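Usage

Read records sequentially. Each one opens with the input sequence:
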Amino acid sequence: MKDKVCILGVPFSKLTLEQTTSLLDEQIMDGQGGLFHLITANPEITLASQTDEQLREIIDSADLIVPDGIGIVMAARRQGNPIAERVTGYDLLLSLLAKGNERGWSFYFLGTDEPTSRLAMEQINLRYPQVKIAGRHHGFFAPDEEPGIIASIQQSKPDVLILAMGAPYSDKWLYKHKEELQGIKLVFGVGGSLDVISGKVRPAPAIWKKMNLEWAHRLLFSPVAKGQKSRWRRQSALPKFVYRTMIRK
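and closes with the structure output:
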């Protein structure tokens, strides 16, 4: 398709952040298409999908996959089918919160730790007063707590469900409960975005963003949640991605 580019079998959207926001605005306002699952995929997730059969199945079933990483943009350019810009989970979340502030949308937030979740909600209430926070729950829950969380989401009927439990866990969690969450219009994962909104993690300075070095800023300054791989280990996927997409014929 003209509006997509396939990288290692993953069909990435070529829409800009503004165009993606407009598409999702139409999806939410129409409300007739059922649950819309968007995935923000970076080189690490793209590589993981080559060997993780469940992740590949999830990617194949997603409604839209946006390029969350400069490596994806570079690989598309190398193929001669360029992507205009990255569409990161953090930027997309802020864009949708701004649009939701105009539209009066409701959001449910699932993920991060309890203090960070609480602080993030305070900041969202302050910055986007017309956004309705339908509910929230931290991401460190036991399996026997899941039915209650699902029931809470079903009862609150949010327009948008935001998952902040890290990738690919967020997308796998959604895939597991997709049939139970059909009343929601849009779902996507945002990684550590709530940590930034809450103030727990400082955002990358503008100069780092301009140079496409946000990944390096996170590597140096962002804490890693308990149970997650170290950022240094995760970044080891980048050379493999470069080799697979830009060097090897």
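Summary fields computed downstream for this record:
- The first strand starts at residue 4 and ends at 7.
- Residues 4-247 form one domain.
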